[in-house]
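Task card 7
Instruction: Convert sequence to structure tokens.
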Amino acid sequence: QVQLVESGGGLVQPGGSLRLSCAASGSIFRINDMGWYRQAPDMQRELVATMSKGGSSNYADSVKGRFTISRDNAENTVYLQMNSLKPEDTAVYYCNADIATMDPFNVLYESNYWGQGTQVTVSS
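Output:
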């Protein structure tokens, strides 16, 4: 069983910073892409940032220059440093990862996993 557990959300004033963390645990053979998505009320879930196992990153235009994604492959953890936060960044932030697991017969299964979400509220 694989789990993604996020932490680090909260309430912050405009212009402030937050750092989100997401740790993957379970019978993990390999983690490929990891990333963050967000969903504001009455809006569709959207990509924020992703990072490959090799370190290549991709950002939504709305967060470029303000957010930084990083990961610790040894700890199966991905981070999102969010600076210069704006009220429009308010959303539930979800961790996402492409994870391969291996069964007792050495068969690999690759699946996409989501965390439970963490609320980020930017307000004065």
